[in-house]
Design a protein that fits this description.
By secondary structure, the protein is mainly alpha-helical. The chain contains nine helices and no strands. The termini are far apart.
Amino acid sequence: METTQQAAGQQRTADQRRRELLEAADRVVLRDGPQASMNAIAAEAGITKPILYRHFGDKGGLYRALAKRHTDALLDALRAAVDAPADRRERVEATLDTYLAAIEARPQVYRFLMHPSEDQQPADAGSDGAFDVGRHSAPLLRRLGEELAKVIHDRVDLGPGSEQLARVWGHGIVGMMYAAGDWWLGERPCSRAELVRCLADLLWGRLAAAADRAGSPGF
């Protein structure tokens, strides 16, 4: 009979193997972007495709695991920017810059997570073809919106109805960052610093007024 210790050891081994496979997938995505295939990822990991399916189910399952991995890291960085010892305007700018720096540093990963390849066709679960990235990326943006809403609600006194207003702002700010960042990454019409300043100016009016209320802890 399997002991609790043996089961725990097997789980640690499985978790470690999953991390190794995700790291292999990351390397392929950095090289191939949205064109990354299960075949290429399996080859990079030194395994067969059926073994990769055993861990993730299909390309959609692998996508969700990679999305969680990168979203967790981004949220940690965003929280650190919000909590940095600086004035409110600087923290707003740092939060915007953290997001933009992340997509600038790894554009192929960003495109894999947020954009389908141009020649993509719908594929059945378990196939090595492309898949509906938009269907998968929407939950990623919703998660970012909810997490940012929690940060706003915890740090800014918005008065009556603050929780709902914080959620509106959280999703609105994420939508703004996504749309502006996507446009900027594709066209590079200005420097990252200039884009950060422009977006911060857009946000700053009401955020500053709310944070300046008497007794408000501020951002």
